[in-house]
Amino acid sequence: VLSLDKVNINYIKLAAAEPRPYMIDSDIKPVTCSTAFGSPSGHSSACVLISLVLILDIFHGKTMAYAKPTYYRTCTYIIAIILGLYWSISIPFTRYLLGAHSLDQIVFGSTLGVFEALVLHFVVRDNLMCHIDMVLTEQNLISPEQVATARERHVKYFQPESEKIGVSFVISKL
Fold it and tell me: Chain-wide mean pLDDT for the chain?
Protein backbone atom coordinates (compact mmCIF):
# COMPACT_ATOMS: atom_id res chain seq x y z
CA VAL A 1 0.00 0.00 0.00
CA LEU A 2 2.68 2.46 0.99
CA SER A 3 4.93 1.52 -1.93
CA LEU A 4 2.13 2.41 -4.36
CA ASP A 5 1.68 5.72 -2.55
CA LYS A 6 5.41 6.46 -2.57
CA VAL A 7 5.70 5.76 -6.31
CA ASN A 8 2.73 8.00 -7.10
CA ILE A 9 4.00 10.80 -4.86
CA ASN A 10 7.49 10.77 -6.37
CA TYR A 11 6.26 10.79 -9.96
CA ILE A 12 3.86 13.63 -9.27
CA LYS A 13 6.55 15.60 -7.40
CA LEU A 14 8.83 15.33 -10.41
CA ALA A 15 6.05 16.30 -12.81
CA ALA A 16 4.73 19.23 -10.75
CA ALA A 17 8.16 20.51 -9.61
CA GLU A 18 6.59 22.84 -7.05
CA PRO A 19 9.04 24.21 -4.46
CA ARG A 20 8.53 24.00 -0.72
CA PRO A 21 7.54 27.18 1.16
CA TYR A 22 11.00 27.72 2.69
CA MET A 23 12.51 27.64 -0.81
CA ILE A 24 10.44 30.67 -1.81
CA ASP A 25 10.29 32.73 1.40
CA SER A 26 13.49 33.18 3.42
CA ASP A 27 11.46 34.09 6.54
CA ILE A 28 10.24 30.47 6.83
CA LYS A 29 12.73 28.37 8.75
CA PRO A 30 11.93 24.65 8.59
CA VAL A 31 12.99 22.43 11.49
CA THR A 32 14.24 19.63 9.25
CA CYS A 33 13.17 19.27 5.68
CA SER A 34 13.92 17.54 2.45
CA THR A 35 15.44 19.47 -0.43
CA ALA A 36 13.14 17.72 -2.94
CA PHE A 37 10.02 19.28 -4.41
CA GLY A 38 7.02 19.64 -2.11
CA SER A 39 3.83 18.93 -4.03
CA PRO A 40 2.04 16.71 -3.11
CA SER A 41 2.79 16.11 0.56
CA GLY A 42 3.88 12.51 1.06
CA HIS A 43 3.16 12.59 4.81
CA SER A 44 -0.39 13.84 4.21
CA SER A 45 -1.03 11.24 1.55
CA ALA A 46 0.37 8.36 3.62
CA CYS A 47 -1.48 9.18 6.85
CA VAL A 48 -4.84 9.58 5.09
CA LEU A 49 -4.23 6.44 3.02
CA ILE A 50 -3.30 4.28 6.01
CA SER A 51 -6.11 5.46 8.28
CA LEU A 52 -8.77 5.12 5.57
CA VAL A 53 -7.56 1.72 4.38
CA LEU A 54 -7.49 0.39 7.94
CA ILE A 55 -10.99 1.65 8.72
CA LEU A 56 -12.43 0.38 5.43
CA ASP A 57 -10.79 -3.03 5.64
CA ILE A 58 -11.34 -3.67 9.33
CA PHE A 59 -14.91 -2.42 9.63
CA HIS A 60 -16.27 -2.59 6.07
CA GLY A 61 -14.43 -5.46 4.48
CA LYS A 62 -15.18 -8.59 6.44
CA THR A 63 -16.40 -11.65 4.60
CA MET A 64 -16.57 -14.19 7.42
CA ALA A 65 -19.79 -15.86 8.49
CA TYR A 66 -19.83 -14.21 11.92
CA ALA A 67 -19.18 -10.71 10.58
CA LYS A 68 -22.64 -9.17 10.62
CA PRO A 69 -22.73 -5.37 10.18
CA THR A 70 -23.31 -4.38 13.82
CA TYR A 71 -20.15 -2.28 14.11
CA TYR A 72 -21.86 1.06 13.52
CA ARG A 73 -23.17 0.99 17.08
CA THR A 74 -20.01 -0.15 18.76
CA CYS A 75 -17.65 2.01 20.74
CA THR A 76 -14.69 0.51 18.88
CA TYR A 77 -15.98 1.82 15.54
CA ILE A 78 -16.50 5.32 16.89
CA ILE A 79 -13.06 5.38 18.52
CA ALA A 80 -11.45 4.14 15.29
CA ILE A 81 -13.14 6.90 13.29
CA ILE A 82 -12.05 9.55 15.80
CA LEU A 83 -8.45 8.29 15.85
CA GLY A 84 -8.38 8.06 12.05
CA LEU A 85 -9.66 11.62 11.71
CA TYR A 86 -7.24 12.87 14.36
CA TRP A 87 -4.29 11.26 12.61
CA SER A 88 -5.43 12.42 9.16
CA ILE A 89 -5.75 16.01 10.35
CA SER A 90 -2.87 16.36 12.82
CA ILE A 91 -0.03 15.13 10.61
CA PRO A 92 -0.81 17.43 7.63
CA PHE A 93 -1.36 20.32 10.06
CA THR A 94 2.06 19.80 11.65
CA ARG A 95 3.68 19.66 8.20
CA TYR A 96 2.11 23.05 7.50
CA LEU A 97 3.22 24.49 10.86
CA LEU A 98 6.78 23.26 10.38
CA GLY A 99 7.02 25.06 7.04
CA ALA A 100 7.62 21.86 5.10
CA HIS A 101 4.55 22.25 2.88
CA SER A 102 2.10 24.89 1.77
CA LEU A 103 -1.65 24.45 2.17
CA ASP A 104 -2.24 23.44 -1.45
CA GLN A 105 0.48 20.76 -1.21
CA ILE A 106 -1.16 19.32 1.90
CA VAL A 107 -4.64 19.33 0.37
CA PHE A 108 -3.28 17.71 -2.80
CA GLY A 109 -1.50 15.00 -0.77
CA SER A 110 -4.56 14.30 1.38
CA THR A 111 -6.82 14.09 -1.65
CA LEU A 112 -4.40 11.72 -3.32
CA GLY A 113 -4.41 9.54 -0.18
CA VAL A 114 -8.22 9.37 -0.17
CA PHE A 115 -8.28 8.48 -3.86
CA GLU A 116 -5.65 5.75 -3.45
CA ALA A 117 -7.45 4.27 -0.43
CA LEU A 118 -10.79 4.13 -2.24
CA VAL A 119 -9.23 2.54 -5.32
CA LEU A 120 -7.36 -0.02 -3.23
CA HIS A 121 -10.45 -0.94 -1.22
CA PHE A 122 -13.15 -0.91 -3.87
CA VAL A 123 -11.20 -1.98 -6.98
CA VAL A 124 -8.09 -3.90 -6.00
CA ARG A 125 -9.10 -5.63 -2.75
CA ASP A 126 -11.92 -7.84 -4.06
CA ASN A 127 -10.00 -8.84 -7.18
CA LEU A 128 -6.96 -9.69 -5.07
CA MET A 129 -9.09 -11.76 -2.69
CA CYS A 130 -10.63 -13.65 -5.62
CA HIS A 131 -7.17 -14.35 -7.01
CA ILE A 132 -5.96 -15.63 -3.63
CA ASP A 133 -9.06 -17.86 -3.36
CA MET A 134 -8.36 -19.22 -6.84
CA VAL A 135 -4.71 -19.97 -6.05
CA LEU A 136 -5.60 -21.63 -2.72
CA THR A 137 -8.27 -23.71 -4.44
CA GLU A 138 -5.86 -24.81 -7.19
CA GLN A 139 -3.31 -25.83 -4.55
CA ASN A 140 -6.06 -27.80 -2.71
CA LEU A 141 -5.57 -25.74 0.46
CA ILE A 142 -9.27 -24.81 0.56
CA SER A 143 -12.26 -26.35 -1.17
CA PRO A 144 -14.35 -24.56 -3.82
CA GLU A 145 -17.37 -24.97 -1.52
CA GLN A 146 -15.65 -22.90 1.18
CA VAL A 147 -14.99 -20.13 -1.32
CA ALA A 148 -18.58 -20.17 -2.58
CA THR A 149 -19.98 -20.14 0.96
CA ALA A 150 -17.82 -17.18 1.97
CA ARG A 151 -18.86 -15.25 -1.14
CA GLU A 152 -22.55 -15.95 -0.56
CA ARG A 153 -22.29 -14.72 3.02
CA HIS A 154 -20.48 -11.61 1.83
CA VAL A 155 -23.27 -10.84 -0.63
CA LYS A 156 -25.97 -11.58 1.95
CA TYR A 157 -24.60 -9.32 4.69
CA PHE A 158 -22.68 -6.55 2.97
CA GLN A 159 -24.26 -5.76 -0.38
CA PRO A 160 -27.26 -3.43 -0.78
CA GLU A 161 -30.49 -5.08 -1.89
CA SER A 162 -30.31 -3.50 -5.34
CA GLU A 163 -26.86 -5.03 -5.99
CA LYS A 164 -27.47 -8.53 -4.65
CA ILE A 165 -28.84 -9.87 -7.93
CA GLY A 166 -25.96 -8.55 -10.03
CA VAL A 167 -23.25 -9.64 -7.61
CA SER A 168 -24.68 -13.12 -7.13
CA PHE A 169 -24.88 -13.46 -10.91
CA VAL A 170 -21.21 -12.50 -11.26
CA ILE A 171 -20.19 -14.81 -8.41
CA SER A 172 -22.06 -17.71 -9.95
CA LYS A 173 -20.13 -17.15 -13.20
CA LEU A 174 -16.76 -17.33 -11.39
Answer: 76
Q: Closest Cα to residue 87, out of 125, 126, 113, 57?
A: 113
Q: For the chain, how are helix, strand and coil distributed in percent, rounded to 5?
A: 75, 0, 25
The CB-side HSE value for 24 (13 A sphere, CA atoms) comes to 10
Whole-angstrom distance, CA of residue 164 vs CA of residue 160: 6
End-to-end CA distance of the chain: 27
82 Cβ partners below 8 Å, 6+ apart?
Answer: none
Cα–Cα distance between 80 and 51 in angstroms, integer?
9
Rounded-to-integer distance, Cα 155 and Cα 167, Å? 7
Q: Please state, in angstroms and rounded to a whole number, the distance separating the CA atoms of residues 18 and 3.
A: 22
Range scoring the smallest mean pLDDT among 56-65, 87-96, 161-170: 161-170
Q: What is the tens place of the pLDDT at every residue in 8-35?
A: 887 888 788 777 877 777 777 777 667 7
Taking a C-beta distance cutoff of 8 angstroms, is the pair 29, 22 a contact?
Answer: yes
